[in-house]
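I hope you will forgive my troubling you with a question about protein structure. I should value your view on which stretches of the chain appear to form regular backbone elements. Here, with my thanks, is the record as I have it:
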Amino acid sequence: MELFNKEEFIEQVSVDCVIFGFHDRQLRVLLPRLKNMDIWMVPGGFVRQNESVDNAALRILAERTGIKDIYLEQFGVFGSLERSSPQLMRQVIKLIKGGLGEGEVLSEDLQWLQRRFISIGYYALVDIHRVVPVCSALDETCEWYDIKDLPLLAFDHADIIMKALESLRLMLNYKLIGFNLLPETFTMKEVQDLYETILDRPFRRNNFQKMILDLDILERLEKKFTGAANKAPYLYRFKSLEKIADK
């Protein structure tokens, strides 16, 4: 089974991807749950011998979300001596064996999975409405969870998610990356809801709108139809890179 063939991958290096989505004023994280276990993991995988670490992360994200044009940011390396859990890995290996046909992988060929792994952390920002979560062969489910109400996570994955959130907050204004969590068109209220949710603090509406419009990165479209034209909010979209460069 190629997924766990040690000759195919770089041993003791893994990639963990924190996939953020935004919906109903909640910042959400996509998490698979392991079969027959009440434990969840950040989507991850291994780096092939013939691919870069970035491409490995993009491949894993495409496999999990069904989309390829994903905003991706590397945010940390996790190599604590305490991050491994041999007991949990034995349970995972048992799951792998249960899903293999006879003779596909010998027992000794799976022992490399019990060694210490150094993990490279990435976070991805997606329009949650475009994602169709995909389970791997080891998963019971793969669903979105509110970052303020996470289930029991394996290894150091709770720490990885919190580090990803810290990085997202630091980069929110610097790279204007929050817009990757919104659909193609959006209202100013949706932008403010997004910022308030990520940063976990309120903004005054007029001050926030001025701050965003002063960045000169949005173009205003028609009003959003709500049945009351005089009260309907305007829709916006992110300007093309060419228009921004012309300024």
User: Anything to note?
Assistant: The first strand starts at residue 9 and ends at 23. The CA atoms of residues 12 and 208 lie 46 Å apart. The longest helix spans residues 157-171.
